[in-house]
């Protein structure tokens, strides 16, 4: 038998009031990051699709094309997570569309890998090299095929044929 907990709304609110606000905790963590490492903040904000934090990091002096120690750029992070608005913002701030990470992957590779069709379309309209190969000779198209992202495959195939 399943046990049903009897929690009144008042008790639930009281319990929730004692817990720290998750958003407040995240904001505190990101402010600390902003003070310590602008590049990490920019990449993390891009990965999490946090447009306001991305804007704030850029205003504070984060360089749009800098990389984390892992070699990841903010544009690659945005592309991998499908963060279209952040990708647009980064491109407006002159992010290099074909900048590679340590594996030789571009933002288009990241978008194809994750199936982020809208970001892939944006990158292609901004001149992303659809034939750029990573360290293993894999193009964004092959990356999409490998991950079986059919919608991304279709768009990349269309761009290959045009």
What do these coordinates show?
There is one protein chain. Helices cover 60% and strands 0% of the residues. The chain has one domain: Alpha Horseshoe (Serine Threonine Protein Phosphatase 5, Tetratricopeptide repeat), CATH 1.25.40.20. The protein contains ten helices and no strands. By secondary structure, the protein is mainly alpha-helical. Mean pLDDT is 79; it is low at 1-5. The longest helix is centred in the first third of the chain and has 15 residues, at 22-36. Helix 2 packs antiparallel against helix 3, helix 3 packs antiparallel against helix 4 and helix 7 packs parallel to helix 9 (140-146). It starts with 8 loop residues before the first helix and ends with a helix. It is globular. It has helices at 9-18, 22-36, 38-47, 51-59, 74-81, 84-92, 107-114, 117-125, 140-146, 150-161.
Rounded Rg: 20 Å
Question: Please, how many helices?
Answer: 10
Structural class determined from secondary elements: mainly alpha
CATH topology: Serine Threonine Protein Phosphatase 5, Tetratricopeptide repeat
CATH homologous superfamily caption = Ankyrin repeat-containing domain
Mean pLDDT: 79
Stretches with pLDDT under 50, minimum 5 residues: 1-5
Assign the CATH class.
Mainly Alpha
């Amino acid at each position: 038998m399943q046990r049903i907990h009897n929690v009144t709304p008042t008790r639930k609110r009281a319990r929730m009031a004692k817990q720290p606000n998750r958003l407040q905790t995240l904001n505190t963590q990101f402010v600390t990051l902003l003070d310590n490492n602008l590049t990490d903040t920019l990449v993390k904000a891009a990965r999490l699709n946090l447009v306001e934090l991305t804007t704030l990091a850029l205003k504070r002096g984060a360089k749009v094309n800098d990389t984390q120690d892992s070699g990841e750029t903010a544009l690659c992070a945005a592309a991998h997570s499908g963060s279209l608005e952040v990708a647009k913002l980064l491109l407006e701030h002159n992010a290099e569309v074909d900048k590679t990470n340590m594996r030789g992957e571009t933002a288009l590779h990241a978008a194809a890998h994750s199936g982020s069709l809208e970001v892939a379309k944006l990158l292609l309209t901004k001149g992303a090299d659809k034939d750029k190969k990573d360290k293993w000779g894999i193009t964004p198209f092959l990356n999409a095929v490998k991950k079986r992202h059919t919608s991304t495959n279709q768009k990349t195939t269309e761009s290959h044929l045009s």
